[in-house]
Amino acid sequence: xxxxxxxxxxxxxxSHTTVELLEIGNDVxxxxxxxxxxxxxxxGIEKITNKTPDFxxxxxxxxxxxxxIFEKHKIDSIIHFAASKAVGxxxxxxxxxxxxxxxxxxxxxxxxxEFKVRKFVFSSSCTVYGEPDQLPxxxxxxxxxxxxxxxxxxxIGEEIIADFARSNxxxxxxxxxxxxxxxxxxxxxxxxxxxxVPANLVPFITQTASGLRESLSVWGGDxxxxxxxxxxxxxxxVDLAKAHIKSLDYCDRMSDSYDFFNVGTGSGSSxxxxxxxxxxxxxxxxxxxxxxxxxxxxxxxxxxTSKANEVLEWKAERxxxxxxxxxxxxxxxxxx
Length: 336
Ligand code: NAD
Ligand code: WQD
Known about the structure:
By secondary structure, the protein is an alpha/beta fold. The chain is 41% helix and 16% strand. The protein has helices spanning 12-23, 40-49, 63-72, 87-92, 94-114, 149-167, 201-209, 237-251, 271-282, 306-312, 320-335; strands spanning 3-7, 27-31, 54-56, 77-80, 119-125, 172-178, 180-182, 216-219, 231-232, 234-236, 258-263, 269-270, 288-291. The strands form 4 sheets. Strands 3-2-1-4-5-6-11 form a 7-stranded parallel beta sheet, sandwiched between helices. It has a two-stranded parallel sheet with strand order 7-10. Strands 8-13 form a two-stranded parallel ribbon. Residues 85, 87, 125, 127, 180, 199-201, 204, 216-219, 230, 232, 271, 294, 297 line the site of UDP-4-deoxy-4-formamido-beta-L-arabinopyranose (WQD).
C-alpha cells in the first residue's frame, strides 16, 4: 500500500476517491484550501471509512506551503484534483484560472521530481474534445482549440505532464478525461456541494425538487437529437473514483511514461432523460421548462471507453437511475 497525496481531496470527486483509497488500505494526505469545499466533508470521509486521513489546509499554488507537506510525508503518488472548474467564470477571469490550475500543477511536478514521487494522476476533462466530429469520442479523437480558459488549462495541463513525465524516469503519469460526474456516495455522507446557484444540471434538478429553486430551465429543446435536448455521458462519481485506483495500479505496469483515458459509461443521455430518471426514482414531478440554448453548449458527446476498459481494467457499473437516486438522497440529507 502507498501514501497518496490527494489535492482537492475535500471536493466532490476528491472526497469520493479518498474514501476508495482508504477502504483498500492506503494512507492518504489531503491538501485543500477550502476554496470550494467545507471541513464537514472530512468528517463524512471519517464516518464512512472509520479512518482519519491527514489533512493540510494549504494552497497548492504556494510552493512553500506545498513543500512542507513533502518534507513531512513520504509521498508515493499524487492524485491532483485541486483546480477551479467553473467554465463561465473562467471566461470572465482567465488569469485566475491559469494561475490556480497551472501554477498548482507546475509546483506539484517540481516537488514530485525533488521528492521522487513515482505516480501522478491528473483530473482532465471531456471538455478537451469540444464539439466532437464523430461519436463516440475515443482518445484518438482530435483535441480541438479550447472554448474556454478552463478547458485550455486542462489541455495545457496534459501537455505539461506528458513533457515532464518523458523527462523524468522516476515518474509514470496518467490523465483521466472525465465526462459528466454526478451522483453521491451511498451513505449520503459525502456528495456534491455547489456554492451558490448551481451551473450543472443534476444539482440544479435536486435543488429544484427540494424547493431551493423554483424551476429548472432546460437549455434548448431544438438540438439535432432524438428529443431535441443535449446529450451527455453521465458517470457515477463512485465509478469515477474507482478509475483513479485503477490508474495508480496501471502506473506500476505501464511501459510509456504517460497515458490518458476517457472516463464515462459509454452511453449518452439527454437532459429530458435525466429528468425522467429523476422523476422515476424520486416519485416526484419536476418543475421545468424548455428555455433558449445556453451559449457554448456542446450538442452531444459521449465516450468510447474501450481503452479504459481494456488497459485500465476499469468499467463503469452504475446506471443513470442509480446516479439520480444517490444524488437525490444526498440532497435530502442536506436538508435534515
Ligand atoms: P471541486 O471544486 O468539488 O473540488 C476541487 C477542490 O480543490 C475543492 O475542494 C477546492 O477547495 C480545492 N482547491 C481548488 N484550488 C485549490 C488550491 N489552489 N489549493 C488547494 N486546494 C484547492 O471540483 P470537482 O468537481 O471535485 O473536480 C475535481 C477536478 O476534476 C478538477 O480538477 C476539475 O477541473 C476536474 N473535473 C471536474 C468535472 C466535474 O464536472 N465535476 C469534470 C471534468 C473534470
Ligand atoms: C449538462 C447538460 C446543459 C443546467 C460542464 C463543463 C465541462 C465539465 C462538466 C469540467 C447540458 C443542460 C444544465 C441547467 C440545463 N466540467 N443544463 N439546465 O455543460 O456538459 O459540462 O461540466 O471539466 O467542462 O462544461 O455540464 O451539468 O452544466 O450541463 O438544461 O440548469 O444539462 O445545457 O446539456 P456540461 P452541465
